[in-house]
Amino acid sequence: MRTAPEYIDSLRQRNLRLFVDGELVRDPVSHPKVRPAINAVAATYELAHDPAYRELATAHSALSNIRVNRFCHLFEEPQDLIRKVELQRVLGRLTGTCFQRCVGMDGLNALFIATWEAGKDAHTRFVQWLRGVQHRDEVICGAMTDAKGDRRKRPAAQPDQFLRIVERRDGGVVLRGAKLHQTGAANSHQILVMPGMAMRPGEEEFVVAAAMPVDAPGITMVLGRQPSDGRKGGVDAGNAKYGGQEVVVLFDDVFVPGSRVFLDGELAPAATLVEAFAGYHRASYGGCKPGNLDVLIGASRLLARLHGVEQASHIRDKLVEMAHLTETVHGVGLAASARSHQHKAGPWQVDQILANVCKHNVTRIPYEIVRLAEDLAGGLVATMPSLADLQHPEFGEQLRRAVGGEERAKLLRLVEWMSYGAGAVPLRIECMHGAGSPQAQRIVLERNIDWETRVQHARRLAGLDNS
Ligand SMILES: Cc1cc2nc3c(=O)[nH]c(=O)nc-3n(C[C@H](O)[C@H](O)[C@H](O)COP(=O)(O)OP(=O)(O)OC[C@H]3O[C@@H](n4cnc5c(N)ncnc54)[C@H](O)[C@@H]3O)c2cc1C
Fold first, then answer.
1. Is the beta carbon of 139 within 6 A of some atom in ligand 1?
2. Which residues of the chain have a pLDDT value below 50?
């Protein structure tokens, strides 16, 4: 398994075409808007070599018969699903942000199942590729979300809005289109494209699951902006070391050899893929987000201590509320993972209802916790001058007396970063839309809940079935 320095070094070997603020970036590893996100991924490699976390962060792969980083692992036994959520919480706390390898991990598992359903050839190709990923301990960018354009229209009515196969040649396929919101794409080794929704007969050209290096000819990446991204890595960053990352990935006639094409027009396996991925990924949110929220709770408690209000009853009550909401999300993520079942292909799958309940709570609970954190922090969270001003030779001392010392200033910056700075991208908007917007979970819940059994219970107790 790679170490963190080996991972960072491997990123330097790529010939990435990445644009940030309109400029081609020659060295992404040193770029101030990219490096914090690289550090967050690197934490997943660090933990794998930390004796305290080795069991959690790694696993024996029966597929490759080697020890692998958990982010490259299949859910081979029920405990793997639970350990995933526990690991995500640890990493969420460690980085305070998104560590970017979960979409790839959940995608690998979903595609293992989907290719098994697609047939022996597809599955053999995928397994061979996955063994290579495990041996090289790679970061996989899981690329599902298409641009989609007018949401009322099907792909055939607006083909440019969906990644698709435009040509077949030389034993491979040519891909054109874009994938949006790609977490950690510029910090990855390979892109695994997958359809973002179930397709219908006649839409086969949009059903493609395939892998390619991030620097394959024809791929252009454009980094998404984040709030306060001009401060990244600086004294006022809030979280100076770690950050998240989303990228628009443009595919301009990218050739993928057949050996790396895992689904090509198979409608039913593609539908399986989308459903399996959604389940895995919606349970994942029960790990990472509680970890991030732990950091926000810690900052809030420390600020209350600095303000002399830690023992006030309403402050204690609000901190308890923040903690209980966080544990609620984590509890459902664990429950979805514990109530698992095995797919015939081998991997264990989460409980769909609980996984969707988990993610649905995540579309609300972090917002309430952020509200409480802003309440406890006081107005200075939004009006604090720069840390450089605190050191100013003329007025610094007077300013420090007025707004508090560096400890308070740095904590306020962290709360600001997580509430509505760059850290709010993973802590709020990703909570809302990642793995599907709220309505996507309600649709799955409505479909999967056994309404008639509930009706029968009501009928029995109401005395309607006494005849
Ligand atoms: C921070 C972040 C990280 C992400 N990371 C990844 C990643 O790594 N890989 C990846 O593939 N994707 C990723 N995503 C994408 C994510 O899965 C999508 O944002 C999500 O599926 C919602 O799609 P959308 O953004 O196009 O919003 P939309 O689908 O446009 O949703 C916006 C609103 O429109 C509604 N709506 C949508 N369609 C319809 C319709 N037909 N009829 C009625 N209402 C409709 C929705 O319910 C919602 O209320 C990420 C997103 C974010 C914000």
1. no
2. none
